């Protein structure tokens, strides 16, 4: 039975193997792939008059595997990001909690059996449930390129090793090809047909993206080097192979300019990688840029090499960007849950549960996605379950960090509701009443804060600690809390104020005129020393915009982007910040904007506005 290809580190399975069965992949410190043998199939249906849910249940087995391989497969149970390869590509599935059965046999090894659920929904009374897609048995095929996701890039797992015409292998010893890969000159690697379809030789900029992701030039080399003694000379400084790149001291081949003889050197000492970039003038005609790893340094060095006379390693990169996460949004208009698997560039509709417009999300420690709606419903998107709390807009939904599996919600009517264990039953009870709208909460061990229309409450709904009209909250790395406010209305003279607390919310100081007093602060985000505020205006022709402060409001804030964007939520996604919008130039249009410089500049994502909806009320990374 073929388990994998070049699968030397079994705890990080990097490739789909050519074998019969189902392919599953899951994200656990990198993508893992494994095939499972088909087992029992069942179809279950349930639902109401206008909402049906169908589920295909599959029992599958890993077959006999070693204990090390079993340890690798068990990582599937630590994540909810599990996908099965179907006819139309990868589709998300759910592993039945508690379903794994592990059979141990001291002679034959270990076998892991799991149960997976693949569901579909359709809001329909007449057509019944939507058929679940067919699940193909994958037949043996040619090995595919081994993929290694690092940050948002997909790299090949190992160096190119093909016997390309004119290429070399270190010492002319073919045994070195499978260990270190082949050695090529720049003309060969840039020739048409050298790279498999969908892959290319990385530019220096693409290498720099990898280097920056790993901490910069001074430290990235250690993260890229194999820790195996057979791959590098001692002392192999700072090597930890933390991203499984497994760089190895492949050495170089150089044509002696005097004798014309190819000489090999630096095996186990250095590894040079070609880039697709020519050297800067005046060396561009003869040389190209290269990246070097070394046995005696944890740094990455960038230099140049002769295009024709130097034979170096090459590591390919895939043409597409990797996004090891999913983004969900909730819209107004049709009350849709929308989903993006490409970093927010495009969204597809997952339909509506028919419970109103989604208003807020939470991802639980178990990996489930729950959301509240503007009609008082809570829906577990992962399982399809739902519960009615009250006919009031749910503004806040959180998981209690102090009580396992407890979900808490706050609504516009001032009710504070609890579901004591959502994994057992999604049923809520009212435990507190504030009498005014709850707009934001902050929960920590030892204290709870509610930010309401009229007051901030700490631990006790009968004892307000600060008057005002509050909408959002964030906390800095230094432990300082900041609360945003509503536009100037009625008796609450907030004047575009932010409130600050340095004692876990026991007392607050007002900072006036942070933004225009006619604007409402909808969301706040603290990220890498910067506080960002997303704001909107009620009525009028302008939307409001995004503001930031780098000194915690000592000096005036900076407004960024354009004033046509009304922000409803801000989230940090793998170094980039996304903001969902509910208005453009006074017109309600659902859009997503992205910043890759910590909020200094913003670009509207392709495909916005989204699905004809009027607003994206909330957004979450899952």
Description:
With 622 residues, the protein is mainly beta. Helices cover 5% and strands 43% of the residues. The protein contains 5 helices and 43 strands. A 6-stranded antiparallel barrel has the order 1-2-3-7-5-4. The longest helix is centred in the middle third of the chain and has 10 residues. The relative contact order is 0.08.
Number of helices: 5
Q: Kindly provide the radius of gyration, computed on alpha-carbon positions and rounded to a whole number of angstroms.
A: 28 Å
Q: What general form does the structure show?
A: globular
* Percent range of helical residues: under 10%
Could you report the average pLDDT, rounded to the nearest whole number? 81
- N→C terminal distance: 34 Å
The proportion of strand residues reads: 35-45%
Strand order, main sheet: write it out. Answer: 1-2-3-7-5-4
Number of DSSP strands? 43
| Low-pLDDT regions | 1-19, 121-133, 138-143
Question: Biggest sheet, in brief?
Answer: 6 strands, antiparallel, barrel
By helix and strand content, what is the structural category?
mainly beta
């Amino acid at each position: 039975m073929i388990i994998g290809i070049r699968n030397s580190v079994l705890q990080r399975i990097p490739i789909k193997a050519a074998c019969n069965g189902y392919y599953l992949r899951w994200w656990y410190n990198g993508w893992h792939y494994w095939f499972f043998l088909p087992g029992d199939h069942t179809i279950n249906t349930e639902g109401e008059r206008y909402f049906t849910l169908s589920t295909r249940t599959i029992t599958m087995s890993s077959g006999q595997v070693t204990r090390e391989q079993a340890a690798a497969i068990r990582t599937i149970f630590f994540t909810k990001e599990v996908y099965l390869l179907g006819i139309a590509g990868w589709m998300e599935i759910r592993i039945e909690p508690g379903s794994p059965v592990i059979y141990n046999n001291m002679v034959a090894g270990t076998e892991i059996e799991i149960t997976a659920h693949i569901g579909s929904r359709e809001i329909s009374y007449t057509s019944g449930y939507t058929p679940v897609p067919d699940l193909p048995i994958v037949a043996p095929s040619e090995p595919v390129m081994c993929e290694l996701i690092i940050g948002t890039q997909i790299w090949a797992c190992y160096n190119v090793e093909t016997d390309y015409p004119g290429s070399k292998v270190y010492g002319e010893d073919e045994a070195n090809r499978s260990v270190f890969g082949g050695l090529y000159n720049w003309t060969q690697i840039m020739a048409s047909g050298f790279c498999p379809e969908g892959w290319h030789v990385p530019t220096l900029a693409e290498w720099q993206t990898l280097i920056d992701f790993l901490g910069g030039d001074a430290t990235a080399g250690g993260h890229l080097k194999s820790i195996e003694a057979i791959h590098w000379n001692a002392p192999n400084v700072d090597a930890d192979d933390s991203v499984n790149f497994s760089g190895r001291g492949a050495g170089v081949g150089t044509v002696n300019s005097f004798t014309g003889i190819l000489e090999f050197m630096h095996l186990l000492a250095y590894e040079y990688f070609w880039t697709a970039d020519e050297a800067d003038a005046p060396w561009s005609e003869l040389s190209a840029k290269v990246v070097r790893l070394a046995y005696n340094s944890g740094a990455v060095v960038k230099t140049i090499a002769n295009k024709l006379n130097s034979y170096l390693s090459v590591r390919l990169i895939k043409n597409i960007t990797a996004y090891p996460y999913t983004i969900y949004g909730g819209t107004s208009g049709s009350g849709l849950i929308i989903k993006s698997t490409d970093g927010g560039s495009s969204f597809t509709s997952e339909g509506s549960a028919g419970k109103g417009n989604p208003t807020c999300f939470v991802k639980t420690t178990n990996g489930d996605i729950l959301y509240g709606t503007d009609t008082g419903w809570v829906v577990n998107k992962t399982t399809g379950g739902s519960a009615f709390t009250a006919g009031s807009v749910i503004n806040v939904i959180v998981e209690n960090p102090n009580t396992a599996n407890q979900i808490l919600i706050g609504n516009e009517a001032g009710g504070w509701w609890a579901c004591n264990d959502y994994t057992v039953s999604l049923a809520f009870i009212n435990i507190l009443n504030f009498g005014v709208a709850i707009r934001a909460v902050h929960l920590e061990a030892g204290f709870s804060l509610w930010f309401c229309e009229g007051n901030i409450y700490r631990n006790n709904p009968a004892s307000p600690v600060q008057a005002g009209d509050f909408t959002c909250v964030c906390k800095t790395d230094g432990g300082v809390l900041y609360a945003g406010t509503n536009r100037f209305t009625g008796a609450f003279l907030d004047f575009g104020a932010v409130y600050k607390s340095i004692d876990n919310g026991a007392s607050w100081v007002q900072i006036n005129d942070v933004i225009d007093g006619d604007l409402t602060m909808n969301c706040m985000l603290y990220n890498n020393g910067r506080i960002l505020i997303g704001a909107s205006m009620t009525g009028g022709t302008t939307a409001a915009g995004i503001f930031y402060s780098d000194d915690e409001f000592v000096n005036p804030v900076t407004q960024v982007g354009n004033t046509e964007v009304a922000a409803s939520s801000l989230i940090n996604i793998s170094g980039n910040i996304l903001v969902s919008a509910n208005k453009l130039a006074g017109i309600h249009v659902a859009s997503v904007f992205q910043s890759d410089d910590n909020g200094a500049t913003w670009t509207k994502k392709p495909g916005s506005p989204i699905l004809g909806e009027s607003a994206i009320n909330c957004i979450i990374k899952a």
